[in-house]
Amino acid sequence: MTTDTTVTEAGPAPRARLSPRKRKKISLAIQYAVFLVVIVTLAFVADWAAIQHAFFNLDEARKAFPDILAVGLKNTIIYTLSGYILGFFLGLVVALMRLSDVLPYRAIALAYIEIFRGLPAIVVFMILGFGVPIAFQDYEMPYDPYGTVALALGLVSAAYLAETFRAGIEAVPKGQTEAARSLGMSQGRAMFTVIVPQAIRIVIPPLTNELILLFKDSSLVFVIGFTLSGYELFKFGESLSTRTGNSTPLIVAGLLYLCLTVPLGYLVRKLEAKQKRGRV
């Protein structure tokens, strides 16, 4: 008696799938490889002698000192800090108006915020630098050019700071206001002695970030056309580059901007990390 037997042949073993972790490692390796190839290619193709002469000429860099510090850097710091101080207090007032129960106050604050956040900062500079003197010929801005720049930067920064302050005030627990009122404080006193100080602590990182943005916005001063004594970093570097036909002074100005903004950026990150640890 014959017994039929069926023989089944095993096919090829299925390929093992890569885990998400391995796929991520492979993807990162490919990206790094492409990045390295691009960098090496640019390094071989670029004319380093021409780059060094046009952008990193030490002789031209030396010509920028010490005036770029005594004039450009000094004016940049003065413009930024004066505009920030004005924007800080004006922004706080606008934020309180935005939160007011009085409808006209809210409407004025909202209109201000939308207008000055919507307008490019360069337009505000041009209005104050050229429009206001034409409209009010008998009026002179106090401490010009510093007064004009401080007002322009302050008006712009106040619109952004107002929203920052509003968010900080709304983040303070309602129980803080109720506790202050239960102690006999008026609404205004409770706001300024209890709520606002807590709100400012909450929004310190974005407040510092706005200061960084204002340092860069101060470069728009060039549109007003001040004399040499009123030049900030960008205008000083641009003027010297135009006169010498070399871009090195602009690079020096850019590096000085970084000397101001990079430490502030680091401070923002530390403050944000500290706040996150405090919330855990």
TrEMBL record:
SUPFAM superfamilies: MetI-like. It is found in: Cell membrane. The chain crosses the membrane at residues 32-56, 76-97, 109-134, 146-162, 211-230, 250-268. It is a multi-pass membrane protein. Its main location: membrane. Keywords: Amino-acid transport, Cell membrane, Membrane, Transmembrane, Transmembrane helix, Transport. Pfam families: BPD_transp_1. It comes from the Bacteria. Coiled coil: none annotated. Residues 73-268 form the ABC transmembrane type-1 domain. Belongs to the binding-protein-dependent transport system permease family. HisMQ subfamily. This is Amino acid ABC transporter permease. It comes from Haloechinothrix salitolerans.
